[in-house]
From TrEMBL:
<keyword id="KW-0812">Transmembrane</keyword>
<dbReference type="InterPro" id="IPR025889">
    <property type="entry name" value="GSP17M-like_dom"/>
</dbReference>
<feature type="transmembrane region" description="Helical">
    <location>
        <begin position="58"/>
        <end position="80"/>
    </location>
</feature>
<feature type="transmembrane region" description="Helical">
    <location>
        <begin position="92"/>
        <end position="112"/>
    </location>
</feature>
<feature type="domain" description="General stress protein 17M-like">
    <location>
        <begin position="10"/>
        <end position="80"/>
    </location>
</feature>
<protein>
    <recommendedName>
        <fullName>General stress protein 17M-like domain-containing protein</fullName>
    </recommendedName>
</protein>
<keyword id="KW-1133">Transmembrane helix</keyword>
<dbReference type="Pfam" id="PF11181">
    <property type="entry name" value="YflT"/>
</dbReference>
<keyword id="KW-0472">Membrane</keyword>
Length: 159
């Protein structure tokens, strides 16, 4: 069962990279980083539209993904089929062609079932509005002090 994070906030950052840098600074100063947690706050699901879908793109993508799966199955069948040592190419060819066929069929059925309601492709990403660094109370004060020193340094400084 997932458990909520515990601890006191010792820093808050706009990006995950900044929060990582803060924890790295703590680790470089012999801080007990086992007591530290990075928590993404104000989560958002961001869907970036990549492009428009067409029957050609859908069927082409289905053929390519089906071909990869068919090639994998064909190679396995070719390696373990009877008839002497070595690899047999007929199962590979059959797997490749079958995979392409079924990939195209399943892609066409899937795209047709949307009836034009989703004629674009996209990529989804979970993003946080900010990243809080939490620490167990026994070390929180020292952690805050170390992160305050980090904040006072010029941003390009690494030591």
């Amino acid at each position: 069962m997932p458990t909520p994070p515990s601890g006191w906030p010792i820093g808050s950052y706009a990006t995950y990279e900044e929060a990582q840098r803060a924890v790295e600074h703590l680790a470089d100063n012999d801080f007990a980083v086992e007591d530290v947690t990075i928590v993404g706050v104000d989560l958002m699901l961001v869907e970036r539209v990549i492009g428009r879908l067409s029957w050609g793109k859908v069927l082409g993508t289905g053929a390519v993904s089906g071909a990869w799966f068919g090639l994998f199955v064909g190679i396995l069948l070719g390696l373990f089929s009877g008839g002497g040592p070595g690899i047999h190419y007929q199962p590979i060819l059959v797997g490749l062609i079958s995979g392409m066929f079924f990939g195209v069929v399943f892609a066409a059925i899937s795209y047709a079932s949307t009836r034009g309601r989703r004629d674009f492709s996209s990529a989804s990403q979970l993003v946080a509005g900010r990243y809080d660094v939490l620490c167990q109370p026994r070390n929180a004060e020292r952690g805050r002090d170390l992160l305050a020193k980090l904040a006072m340094r010029p941003s390009g400084s690494t030591s």
